[in-house]
Backbone:
């Protein structure tokens, strides 16, 4: 994996016309990702042990820092705007990590407008902005007011978090819309952003946010992946703050296009005639996120009651107060198969710990990731063979 990530960094820089040939490849144990620091978004750990997650983060780091002069200017603007945004986030009890969203959405430009009509610092669509209490008409557009648009964005983020139970999913829904995200959760039976298969823009959205966060506050940890020229820009003290009245002139076209291309048609899904979003079956996040673990199918027995199936945990966590580790074995029994509903009921009784080299009693049940309820849809045979990932709830 070490060669893969280093090769990726070189390839990304070549795409920007930058020549980067390290004198000596650093000796980092990237096979276990010890070379990357732990990364969190709003207190939720990013699963960097997953190779694809680490690769996407490194790609976003390289791309976000690629245009040296532009990145320095965006740092200066953030130094002026973050002191305004942060207290508003705190007032609404929104984690401070969300201050990086407008960097991705608009490069902190009040006059930014996407091809779909989203505008302002937070790139709100007109209908969404009006539902959130902003005035948007031919004579006044409060999406361009930093204070008012941040207040509106906070109301929207609280709405998303209330229904999704995860700040990571709330950020993804901010980009794609809650309806689109819920459709993917239900169809894939997966409620973890890092394991969901989403459209390309939403799939890389959070990584771009994380890249800004890491480059602003933790860039020294990524020295092995970034050229010295970039590190020099990142370490340069921020001096004069950029004034908003010159916001469009100072950033290059390529940076502005990257900042606004992610603005999709956001909306609070409330179809006329009923079936409002709050009435839809949503992930039981209190159960799935606080008490659940995820495990990938390693060995499937026959599809009949009493058969034992073996799963590998896909990440570290807690189950019933006990620390569990990536790779631990979960022994599950096919408890029942309901042909009428097409549901499979799996129950785990034992877990083998790779750390302790011991077997522990642990009562878990496989749950539908979209609802948090026990019982999952019967998988197709080819899906099972490809490494089926299930969410497990402590009983």
Residues:
């Amino acid at each position: 994996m070490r060669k893969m990530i280093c090769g990726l960094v070189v390839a990304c820089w070549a795409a920007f016309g930058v020549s980067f040939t390290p004198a000596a490849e650093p000796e980092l144990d990237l096979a276990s990702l010890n070379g990357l620091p732990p990364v969190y978004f709003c207190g939720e750990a990013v699963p960097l042990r997953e190779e694809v997650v680490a690769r996407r983060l490194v790609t976003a780091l390289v791309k976000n820092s690629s245009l040296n002069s532009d990145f320095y200017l965006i740092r200066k603007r953030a130094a002026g705007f973050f002191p305004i945004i942060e207290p508003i986030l705190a007032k609404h009890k929104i984690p401070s990590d969300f201050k990086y969203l407008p960097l991705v959405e608009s490069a902190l430009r009040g006059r930014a407008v996407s091809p779909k009509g989203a505008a302002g610092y937070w790139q709100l669509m007109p209908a969404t902005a009006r539902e959130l209490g902003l005035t948007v008409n031919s004579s006044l557009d409060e999406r361009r007011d930093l204070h008012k648009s941040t207040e509106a964005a906070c109301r929207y983020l609280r709405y998303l978090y209330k229904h999704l139970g995860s700040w990571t999913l709330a950020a993804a829904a901010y980009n794609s819309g809650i309806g689109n995200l819920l459709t993917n959760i239900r169809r894939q039976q997966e409620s973890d952003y890092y394991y969901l298969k989403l459209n390309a823009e939403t799939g890389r959205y959070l990584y771009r946010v994380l890249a800004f966060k890491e480059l602003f506050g933790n860039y020294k940890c990524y020295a092995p992946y970034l050229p010295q020229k970039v590190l020099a820009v990142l370490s340069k003290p921020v001096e004069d703050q950029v004034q908003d009245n010159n916001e469009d002139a100072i950033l290059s076209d390529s940076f502005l296009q990257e900042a606004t291309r992610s603005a999709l048609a956001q909306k609070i899904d409330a179809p006329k005639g009923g079936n409002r979003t709050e009435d839809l079956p949503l992930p039981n996040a209190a159960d799935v996120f606080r008490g659940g673990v995820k495990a990938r199918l390693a060995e499937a027995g026959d599809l009949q009651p009493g058969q034992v199936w073996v799963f590998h945990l896909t990440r570290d966590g807690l189950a019933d107060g006990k620390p569990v580790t990536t790779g631990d074995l979960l022994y599950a029994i096919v408890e029942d198969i309901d042909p009428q509903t097409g549901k499979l009921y799996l129950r785990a009784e034992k877990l083998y710990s790779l750390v302790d080299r011991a077997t522990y009693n642990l009562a878990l049940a496989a749950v539908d990731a979209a609802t948090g309820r026990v019982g999952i849809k019967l998988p197709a045979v080819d899906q099972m063979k490809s490494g089926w990932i299930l969410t497990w709830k402590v009983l």
